[in-house]
Amino acid sequence: MQISLENQVAVVTGGSRGIGAATVKLFAEAGAKVVFNYRQAAGAAREVVRSCGQHAPNVVALRAEVSQMADAKKLVAEAARRFGRLDILVANAGIWNAEPAPIEQMTERQWDEMLAINLKGVYSVIHYAVPHMIRRKSGRIIVVSSTAGQRGEAFHTHYGASKGGVISLVKGLSTELAPHGILVNCVAPGWVDTDMCTPVVRNRREHQQALRTIPLRRFARPAEIARPILFLASEMASYMTGEIVNVNGGNVLCG
Predict the structure, then answer these.
(1) pTM, full prediction
(2) I need a labelling partner for 35 at 20 to 30 A (CA). Which of 1, 89, 121, 209 fits?
(3) Per CATH, which fold does 9-244 belong to?
(4) Catalytic amino acids?
């Protein structure tokens, strides 16, 4: 059975690379109209649109910084203006720094940037998307977290805190928004073979150390995270809300 998002309108944040780009392509193939944002990589964003082939006319890239409320508002408004509605929000945009940041050395700027993009950036787009969904008495919100949000991550505690924060946000919103027919879920990936993880992949010692923690002994491909996101956006997940879907190759076993 093929999943269809025909006639659905989706906003995907961080859609120019990695998990976001894979999600944009998969949603377009499933029949959705998609608006996604990018921060700086205009060329990569254009390539994502081009790669959607025959579905490209229904895919729009917009430069926006979702940690800024005005930009988040603009992104959501563009989807509603261009396609007349908003059914699905995938809050995926995020950053990670491969350089260790021990808590006693972590700067205020490092902390603030991580929380602004990874946590405030999720709040901002949800804040503006929800009124559109309430009016329609339906909607799907899928947030991308991380195994670091479940178990913490030494020397990257600001990242773990930001990703743990979005898990708590998802759980609270799932109850808050259920009366409006809005389902709120989360996907928590482990290591994924994206440019964000390139520094680890290029470092043989760190790469082997990471692989040893994964029973499947490999990093995920971006499409392997995008598929569960597609599932949560579809009618196949019509009775799921407040869930954390773990896609980590067995790296973190959560009940």
Answers:
(1) 0.94
(2) 1
(3) Rossmann fold (3.40.50)
(4) 159
